[in-house]
Amino acid sequence: MPNRSRTYQRLVAHFNGYPGQSFRARELHELLYLPNDETYVNTTRSRLDRLVRQGVLSQPGRGIYQKRT
After folding, report:
1. pLDDT of residue 2
2. Residue 61 CB: number of other CB atoms within 10 A?
């Protein structure tokens, strides 16, 4: 799995490429070719939640993330 900062960069870059579109953590794993093991998906959920708290992403529904506009 890519290192932590590279994973954050890939996540944010993906959302930047699709403003207004919502994604679930598991969908991002498939799109970014990340390991689909439940442990890794949960780690990504934590990262996405952190990006929500930082104001980079919004969470329009439970388990759904999108770029904050």
Report:
1. 52
2. 9
Q: What is the spatial distance between Cα 64 and Cα 30, in angstroms, rounded to a whole number?
A: 15
Strands 57-61 and 64-67, how do they pair?
antiparallel
Asked if 62 and 23 count as a contact pair (C-beta separation under 8 A), the reply is no
pLDDT at residue 59 in the model = 96
Q: The pTM is what?
A: 0.89
Both tokens assigned to 21: 């579109």
Q: Residue 1: its pLDDT value, please?
A: 45
Two structure tokens written together for 60: 């329009």
| 3-class DSSP assignment, residue 61 | strand
End-to-end CA distance of the chain: 29
